[in-house]
Amino acid sequence: MSHAHLDVRYVANLARLELSDAEVTVFQNQLDAILGYVETLSKLDVAGIEPTSYPAPVFDRMREDEPRESLPLEAVLQNAPEQAQNQIRVPKVIADA
Amino acid sequence: MSLLSLRAQLRDGSLTPAALIDDLAGKIAATDGDVGAYLSYDLAAARAEAANADLSLPLGGIPIAIKDNINVLGQPCTCGSRFLSENYASPYDATVIRKLRAAGAIPFGRLNMDEFAMGSATENSALQTTRNPRDLTRIPGGSSGGSAASVAAGSALAALGSDTGGSIRQPASHCGVVGLKPSYGRVSRYGLVAFASSLDQIGPLTHTVEDAALVLQAIAGHDPLDSTSLDLPVPDYTAELNDGVKGLKLGLPKEYFGDGIDPAVRAKVMAAVEKLAAQGAEIVEISLPHTEYAVATYYVIAPAEASSNLSRFDGIRYGHRAANPGDLMELYRRSREEGFGPEVKRRIILGTYVLSSGYYDAYYTKAQKVRTLIRRDFEQAFEKVDAILSPVAPAPARKLGEFSDDPLHEYLSDIFTIAANLAGNCAISVPAGTVTSDNGSELPVGLQILGPHFGEAKLLRIARAAES
Predict the structure, then answer these.
(1) Which tens digits make up the pLDDT trace of B323-363?
(2) Which residue, A57, B242, B255, B401, is most buried by CB atoms nearer than 10 A?
(3) Which site among A5, A21, A38 would you substitute to test the B interface, given the most B Cβ atoms closer than 10 Å to its Cβ?
(4) Rg (CA), chain A
(5) Alpha carbons B213 and B207: distance in angstroms, whole number
(6) Torsion of the alpha carbons at A62, A63, A69 and A72, rounded to the nearest 10
(7) Closest-approach residue (CA) in chain B for A59
(8) Closest to B456 measured CA to CA, from B420, B431, B422
(9) Is B458 one of the catalytic residues?
(10) B5 catalytic, yes or no?
(11) What is the per-residue DSSP string for B28-39?
């Protein structure tokens, strides 16, 4: 798992994260050091080992799919940065024809 | 004062819930200018609840302070982040809060933390510096630094924290209080702002082991709103608390006592081990052979889960929104740039990278497989011993600001605590004395006791013996 170069700007874009040039420089060095350390995992042979997603002996116990009360509209909207007509307002997402 | 003696005073009328709230507010005013554990507290709301307290309940009228990543209806929930510090008020109670209220307790006060629980010094809080009450030049530990510092300063009777890689146990160790991370699935995570969903657990930070048992009793159990909370009976955690350790087998993992641990810390931990041996416990050396891979495994899995969980902070439904964005994409990008601090950004980038096409199997799947090996280490160890003893942190609390530019160095100090999160075990930090620092202060050292999945009752019993 020799890590290819982590391109901080490219990956930050995948995560929808704007970064300053100064941040890119600092993070690049720090993340290279962290990924270099993570390379220690390559010493281990894990052929045939099952991955662990959750550490509990049993999990994903589903509840009955029954209707139940949800948050009232005003409780949902109270934290929205911008709202109008009982809806959350966002910049226009449809291009002009 | 212990929660049981407070309860007795409340019940016999020598103390009222209102007086208790006012007393705590006085202690916050007296200590928190220096310590900085609290981000906010709503005295009027707590007084109103105190007026209606049902003192017949197990925690009736007892205020409990809450880490600022657990939702309490109508209160702030900043997660130590600018992203949520401007205008967020929780629209609902987390399940642990609902359960605390059902047990009669009063959630009172919001405690500082590393931003989104990422850190081990509380220095990653974007909002406030928290200092260690035992030495104000030093960190309280983290990420539940406010929780540990408030209990240590006496400005909280008990607190809730969350533990993803040691975030309850390490600050408890640094501040000289008790900190319990329950087994994965023991306590509902509904209403805890998610950092790494397969690692996070809520637990108590308290003055005594008995107090930790009482708070765990109130918050444990299955919750239909968290499918990872297990539907197993909740035992009486105080029933066998004083049964002692005679005849129990306790393991010392040789990998946890090697190089890299401060000799003074090692000496305190070994003194605690000898104390348990003197009470009749049998001490045996064990091996957890994959310990050296725990930090690398954790720093793939935790950032991966964090990058996914934190995608919800997009500036649309709650939290910070950048001003005058040109389009939706710019709104996302700039809101996140402005709202998140550097450690959160680092982990989002790292997590996004290890989950990205072409790297997923090499990093994420590989780490999940190593996680299985780490889990098996513990399963095999618990076939031989009742519990495992170790240090909590390799050194006592460091000075504020010492390692702020070296995240990897900070990550490596998590070595003794993160395996319990990867494996899902329960684990507790109990005070094991102090060491003298170079500036002459007495710095607490914790003993970590690790138990098997859902082994909290015996874990607390051993912790009680270590504390007495």
Answers:
(1) 999 999 999 999 999 999 999 999 999 999 999 999 999 99
(2) B255
(3) A38
(4) 23
(5) 11
(6) -20
(7) B228
(8) B420
(9) no
(10) no
(11) HHHHHHHH--EE
